[in-house]
Amino acid sequence: MPDFLLNLDRHLFYFLNHDLSNVFFDWIMPILREPKTWIPLYVFIIAFCLWKYKKKGLVIILLLIASVGVADFTSGVLMKHNIQRLRPCRDPIVSATDISRVPCGSGYSLPSTHATDHFAIAMFLCFVFGRKWKWIWLLGILWAASICFAQVYVGVHFPIDVLCGAIYGGLVGWLFSLLFKKLQPSF
């Protein structure tokens, strides 16, 4: 990564991790980034799709699961192990000032798999349901972006990690939505 971009990333990390520090964020951000927090939402999405769309709903759910699976595997296994960027809490320059609000985590940082997975979910659902419900775009992007912000705020990712994860996850979600439209052109 070019030095100017690396320095910009570190400065932005410091701003988000330190300068925005407050009691409310210290409480809510670890909760937002915790996957178990979102289990009720995932159950609702599955139940809603199956109830409202029956067989098409099953196709939606299967492709949504496939998009997250592909996004998770390719970002978490293939990309991270080839890029090998250290997390802020393990970076020799940043770790001295990093405020770690959750355990550091093992493995590498780029791309953020949380960002990849949640943007894959958000973009898949936005592209599938966006024509019917325009508001889903705002909700989906805000939801996934809040998880990305939380990853930086708690100290486990740099901003570029979550940006790359968001872009890649969004691309995966969009590609799987195209597959859905091929399989269900009347939807």
UniProtKB/TrEMBL annotation:
This is Phosphatase PAP2 family protein. Residues 60-177 form the Phosphatidic acid phosphatase type 2/haloperoxidase domain. Keywords: Membrane, Transmembrane, Transmembrane helix. The chain crosses the membrane at residues 59-78, 135-154, 160-180. It comes from Mucilaginibacter celer. InterPro entries: PAP2/HPO (IPR000326), PAP2/HPO_sf (IPR036938). SUPFAM superfamilies: Acid phosphatase/Vanadium-dependent haloperoxidase. The lineage of its organism: Bacteria, Pseudomonadati, Bacteroidota, Sphingobacteriia, Sphingobacteriales. PANTHER family: AT30094P, SPHINGOSINE-1-PHOSPHATE PHOSPHOHYDROLASE.
